[in-house]
Amino acid sequence: MDQRRRCVEITERFAFYGISSNLVMYLTGPLREPTAAAAAAVNTWSGAASMLPLLGALLADSCLGRYRTIVLASLLYVLGLGMLTFSSVLPSKCQEAVDTGSCGPPAFQVVFFYFSLYLVAFAQGGHKPCVQAFGADQFDQNDPKERLSRSSFFNWWYFGMCGGNIFTVTILNYIQDNVGWGLGFGIPCIAMLIALAVFLLGTKTYRFYPLEDESPFTRIGKSLVALARSKRGTANSKTSNECIENEDHAEDAKEALRLFPIWATCLIYAVVFSQFSTFFTKQASTLDRRITSTLQVPPAALQSFINVSAVAFIPIYDRLIVPVIRNFSKIPSGITMLQRIGIGMVMSLLSMVVAALVEMKRLKAASDYGLIDQPDVPIPMSLWWIIPQYVLVGTGDVFTMVGLQEFFYDQVPDALRSLGLALYLSIFGVGSFISSFLVTAIDVATRKSGESWFSNNLNRGHLDYFYWLLAGLSGLELVFYVYFAKGYVYKRKENSIVR
């Protein structure tokens, strides 16, 4: 039964990254959008896709339940992907135009495309928090062996996701760039439909838990009110049962609010995370990506090195590193969740430093070979130069991404586990919005004083300045993160089965 749930999640990630990994190339290609505008659009969409799980989790925990939410979200996913496929094959006058550079797609096609794109984001909002929480629900916290297995579950869950993404950003991106966008968007639609059928076949084997009598909306509201009253020391004539209930709600609110400093000090990490699907891809598109005389690697396919790094490192970490560290730390998971997150944040900072250094070398190569004003000519610089920054992102994700998933699942009040995973995803939503704001603001400011850092001709831009800025912000964020992490007290464990 675990294979069925994992199949659904891998396929959903295959579908999502099949769209997001190459989206910036579709926007700057068939839709003819400028580089900065396309990057901002991708970040805004990614932000919405990461924030919507908050709504999906609340609906799942309050009325639908995780199973029904997964099924309904999967159906919406298939619909959105189908509409996206249709929008990409609509006829365009640009196909017959002599000067395609000055030609843009019809307004209807653009509107239909973005509507379909945000429908996919909406479906993902219901799907993403529930599948993983539903998978973790299958482990009984009363059973010591199952409880220990849950930490390993998050590692191998991420392993499965990354394994599926390798195919996405290699084969699927190649199809999109060299065969057609219609087929490139259509394959995820068909895959999602098959995965839904497989998931439904396992219905009788799943472990279900009843919904709480009190919806998360009501519980959160009561928790905040109870916390405010406890701060004011408001006296009242409530019964002892009501007082106990208020104390429970106040404790829930305190547990949730304790997470805020950790949540806030991970936002710049999320800003850095959003770069590999936008500027890393545009940066890669300018390099010599030839493998043979006839085979050229699609720019977005280089994102596979993130997943390859994660897939290669997770077994080493889970089976070799953790047991060794466990002998010294006496912690079942080897290191604490917050230590794990912090290690990944350091690697994220290093990825920005490496990206800035590589971009400086790329700009120098463009100048040395007289290619500054020839953006369509590949710079004689091998694609291998850009691989280390992808590897650092992938290895860092094994620490931070998995650590954040487990932390927000484990540390929220027991009745709000789906919401906890949605809070983890919201980090990347807010981070994407921050990235979009930064790109837009910097583009406007630098264009006024000369050439934009994000010029359509990257050879005249300065992505290196942007990467150095993010490296500096990451360092500052890390200082605050360490401060709050050192003072964090983990939630006391109780022998209760989670929803």
Automatic annotation (TrEMBL):
<dbReference type="GO" id="GO:0071916">
    <property type="term" value="F:dipeptide transmembrane transporter activity"/>
</dbReference>
<feature type="transmembrane region" description="Helical">
    <location>
        <begin position="14"/>
        <end position="31"/>
    </location>
</feature>
<feature type="transmembrane region" description="Helical">
    <location>
        <begin position="181"/>
        <end position="201"/>
    </location>
</feature>
<feature type="transmembrane region" description="Helical">
    <location>
        <begin position="37"/>
        <end position="60"/>
    </location>
</feature>
<dbReference type="Pfam" id="PF00854">
    <property type="entry name" value="PTR2"/>
</dbReference>
<dbReference type="InterPro" id="IPR044739">
    <property type="entry name" value="NRT1/PTR"/>
</dbReference>
<keyword id="KW-0812">Transmembrane</keyword>
<dbReference type="GO" id="GO:0042937">
    <property type="term" value="F:tripeptide transmembrane transporter activity"/>
</dbReference>
<feature type="transmembrane region" description="Helical">
    <location>
        <begin position="338"/>
        <end position="358"/>
    </location>
</feature>
<feature type="transmembrane region" description="Helical">
    <location>
        <begin position="156"/>
        <end position="175"/>
    </location>
</feature>
<feature type="transmembrane region" description="Helical">
    <location>
        <begin position="465"/>
        <end position="484"/>
    </location>
</feature>
<dbReference type="InterPro" id="IPR036259">
    <property type="entry name" value="MFS_trans_sf"/>
</dbReference>
<comment type="similarity">
    <text>Belongs to the major facilitator superfamily. Proton-dependent oligopeptide transporter (POT/PTR) (TC 2.A.17) family.</text>
</comment>
<dbReference type="InterPro" id="IPR000109">
    <property type="entry name" value="POT_fam"/>
</dbReference>
<keyword id="KW-1133">Transmembrane helix</keyword>
<dbReference type="GO" id="GO:0009705">
    <property type="term" value="C:plant-type vacuole membrane"/>
</dbReference>
<feature type="transmembrane region" description="Helical">
    <location>
        <begin position="300"/>
        <end position="317"/>
    </location>
</feature>
<keyword id="KW-0813">Transport</keyword>
<feature type="transmembrane region" description="Helical">
    <location>
        <begin position="106"/>
        <end position="123"/>
    </location>
</feature>
<feature type="transmembrane region" description="Helical">
    <location>
        <begin position="421"/>
        <end position="445"/>
    </location>
</feature>
<feature type="transmembrane region" description="Helical">
    <location>
        <begin position="259"/>
        <end position="280"/>
    </location>
</feature>
<dbReference type="GO" id="GO:0080054">
    <property type="term" value="F:low-affinity nitrate transmembrane transporter activity"/>
</dbReference>
<feature type="transmembrane region" description="Helical">
    <location>
        <begin position="67"/>
        <end position="86"/>
    </location>
</feature>
<feature type="transmembrane region" description="Helical">
    <location>
        <begin position="383"/>
        <end position="409"/>
    </location>
</feature>
<protein>
    <submittedName>
        <fullName>Protein NRT1/ PTR FAMILY 5.10-like isoform X1</fullName>
    </submittedName>
</protein>
<keyword id="KW-0597">Phosphoprotein</keyword>
<keyword id="KW-0472">Membrane</keyword>
